[in-house]
Amino acid sequence: MSPRKQRLTVTVDPDLVEAGNRAVASGAADSLSAWVSTALAEKARRDAQLTQLRQAIADYEAEFGEITAQEMASQQRADREDAVVIRGRARAGRTKPSSA
To answer: Are 29 and 35 in contact (CB under 8 A)?
Structure first.
């Protein structure tokens, strides 16, 4: 049996209430409460993931030393070079992958 839900009174920006009501009207959410609950659950999940990421970075840096701005820039360049353009145009100076 799932835990009993609790009533909560909050103050929310009108544009967010409108967005929630649109989600209900379109069938994307069962109710405004369900929409808000989903948003809170997603926020909690994202916060937990960020906490885990911060811990992973701290563990890495404790073992190998601080990640420098130069290392991050180098990795960013390497990631850009390895990226595959799905939409739009490839940047000038980059070669288009050959189709075999």
So the answer is: yes
